[in-house]
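Quick one:
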Amino acid sequence: MQPSTLSLLFLSGLLIVSSCTGDSKKPTKVLPESSAEEKLKTALAQHPDSTVLAENLIQYYRDNGSYDRALSTVNKVLEQDSNKLRFWEIKAILHFENADTLMAIRAFEKALTLSPNYADQISLGTLYAQTGNSKALDFADRLLADKKADAAKEALFIKGLYFSFTNQKKKSIGFFDECIQLNFTFMEAYREKAIAQYDLGNYEAALSTLQRATTLQNNFDEGFYYMGRCLEKLNRKQEAIEAYQTALLYDPSYIEASDALAKLGVKN
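Output:
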């Protein structure tokens, strides 16, 4: 049971990121040029200093899964002015979504040299945690010490992720519990706690955690997906099928849930 790549939940406040579920990397596509793309490119060529037009073109490529073109456009903007903070943040997010965590980290590190804002500190700390880099704990401690950050639950979540990704599952659960105590609707903390419990073989405990989460937020698609994984381990096949189907009810594009049903012989 692998943690969701969307553990980098703190990026969702930026315009370039939309919410989605599941663990899958979005495939990079080679797009034929369309009239919409041509219009955006022509407008940008006429107004090369327009960051709005550049973002619109980047978003067009991102929406269509063409990460190579999106990143190429970002890089052209940064070649003109390497101090554009927002484009370093966009670059980091695109690399993350395209499953290039190392490049995402480098982009966020550069962004923080331009502006040590809390959002980027949280995002970079989360990436460090997911790669087992102990710098995650330093970031978390600084966020906890800085009352202006108002990021206690995010800092504790980073610590939980770090210990989970460094195979210290029992220790990670304690930090996820602290997150939940601070905010009982923090769905990502429930998810990661359940993943840690699952990895320890505590399937009943993981199921209980997910049931609580989905009771609090009944459209929590990831919660239902991971519930299905637990139910499979407990040999409760029909209930697992229903959990996967519920996940797909709330997110019809949830690939992992579709694949799980297929493996159970259920056509979606």
